[in-house]
Amino acid sequence: MTLSGRRILLVIGGGIAAYKSLDLIRRLRERGAGVRCILTAGAQRFVTPLAAAALSGDRAHTDLFDRETEAEIGHIRLARDADMVVVAPATANLLAKMAAGLADDLASTVLLATTLPILVAPAMNVRMWQHAATRRNMATLLADGIRTAGPNDGAMAEAEWGPGRMAEPTEIADAVEGLLGAGQEGGRAALAGRHVLVTSGPTHEPLDPVRYLANRSSGRQGHAIAAAAAAAGARVTLVSGPVALPDPPGVAVLRVETGREMLAAVEAALPADIAVFAAAVADWRAAGAAAQKIKKDGAEPPPLRLALNPDILATVAGRTESRPAVVVGFAAETEHVVAHARTKLARKGCDLIVANDVSPETGIMGGARNAVHLVTAETVEDWPDLPKEEVARRLVARCAEMLAGR
Ligand code: C5P
Hints:
Blueprint: E1 7-12, H1 18-30, E2 34-39, H2 49-56, H3 67-72, H4 75-80, E3 84-90, H5 92-100, H6 106-113, E4 118-122, H7 126-130, H8 132-143, E5 147-148, E6 152-155, E7 161-165, H9 169-180, E8 195-200, E9 205-206, E10 212-213, H10 220-231, E11 235-240, E12 252-255, H11 259-269, E13 274-277, E14 284-286, E15 306-308, H12 312-317, E16 326-333, H13 337-348, E17 352-357, E18 369-370, E19 372-375, E20 380-382, E21 386-387, H14 388-404
Parallel strand pairs: 1-2, 1-3, 3-4, 4-5, 8-11, 8-13, 11-12, 13-16, 16-17
Antiparallel strand pairs: 6-7, 9-10, 14-15, 17-19, 18-21, 19-20
Helix pairs in contact: 1-2, 1-9, 5-8, 9-10, 10-14
Bound molecules: cytidine-5'-monophosphate.
């Protein structure tokens, strides 16, 4: 009962995913939470207030101007009487209203009136999700401190495929736990109120409009770290290169392609309390990527001239202003793992290096497990071979300890 005694106000928006919100009510109650629902007019076209009321064990609220419910529990009390607000499904329209601060029905009025943490689970058609207007609205909401769960990639109701599917009820319930710091020691999240910045994945460095240099990083370890930090109660910004992974629940994800874009996104996301650089940033990019596709006409292959990419970790660790209190780097090596990590620690100016052997025979690159050594200026700690999620949990706990000791 990880959410025992917690009260969730669930705003159900008008999308086909609303049926999954009925299951979300059950998943939250299963974990001990009390759930009170607000349904928009659109939501009521998909699910009934009666179903929400029956599953939540409380009356469902629908109307701003209903005299009876306003007298019994006004919209301002609805906005206050909970530990957090979950909006699921968060339709494009509801997100737009939230971003603009519109209050023209009960749901949007409560969302404007509340000072509680808000988690949104977006769900919409892929084209609506990718529309510039929705992207602008999401950027505004994230800057306002609103958390997100999903959306996931997958099949959509309209026989299309792509990002826009609402996160699964268990993923949303996990994000709620993360936000409320449930299941943590003493019921308090180790990183509540903290901002954690994580980089993950490879970068793609263009040679011309169709070709790029890349590496084999899957982003699994970095994404797991972002998820673990969110589960520890932190506000998390994940700056990710191109990966084939779903967004971790409750994490703000900024997608980039190149190392230079990653540096810009990281600097824009500062300040942070903890920064973990798990991305495999390309060390080099093509010097002067061609504006047009390089043709195969000549007898000689074209020369490949490279330029050094900015070192994001070293740049951030070397900052005099808004340097995160804890800066962690990774060192993927194929030999002399610990010795190389030591040198890297000093050269990059970070507080901790997570070193691992990525020789092909270890299967770590792209695999589900990782065997790491934690290297500081004074110590080396060898961790056993663990699932990447467990490495992430332990690493986040270690960063929280380091932060507390500052
Ligand atoms: O120098 P090397 O690439 O081995 O260093 C690895 C560490 O530095 C990782 O933490 C990686 O995320 C970070 N890095 C970076 N920017 C670069 C190269 C590496 O942040 N351009």
